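Cross-check.
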Amino acid sequence: MAVYDLEEQEKIDDLKAWWNQWGNLVAGIAIAVALGIFAVQAWRWWQGRQADEASVLYAAVSSAVKANDVPKAKEAVAQLEEKFGGTGYAPRGALLVAKLLFDSGDAAGATAQLNYVIDRSAEDELKQIARVRLASLQFDQKQYDDALRTLDAKHDEAFAGVYEDLRGDILAAAGRASEARTAYQTALTKLDQKGGYYGFVQAKLDAIGGPLGATPAGVAPNLPVQPNAAAPIPTTPPPQVPAPAAPSK
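Predicted model, tokenized:
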């Protein structure tokens, strides 16, 4: 029995020695892991709450836009951008309000909302949509050089056809028909030949002389042609605005 007690005491002493040497480190690691788990859960909860509150304001923006209520839309989007600018709802609300403001004659307000999306959105797709709409607005204001610079920004291949089509519209209106023809030709290479949009761009190209190197009879290739831009935001069929991603719980 005494031998057994001695062996137990030795094990206890060894454990105490190990703990004296490594106990603080082990405890520190355990606390750090626990705090990390807590922080992750708290962050997810906070993000979920932010998204829920932002969705309420976004719904208010959407309702105001549908009702053509400019003051309410401006107030709601201002709160959305100020309080929840880091969510996906803020840039989407800004895109809605930009269209409403342009239609109501407030080009400066529309420009400010589109620039907000370009400067603040974390989603490249939304930025590219905002740029094509901003270029359309600048085109309508006859700010041709500004519009072309807006379209010079890097964009995904999926947007190439829309960007080049609008570039062609701007160049044609500026009297730069040869460059417009090149832009329209580039746009056609990026579009689905079976789609209606392809035929729309092809008609504009044909109206200013057709592909470079082919000048149909009776058409002066260098004459400026004003494309039909009845709805300059957007002039071309707009890309769809993706819905905001659901927050992770």
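Confidence is low (pLDDT under 50) at residues 215-235. The chain has two domains: 17-122, 144-238. Passed to J.P. for a second look.
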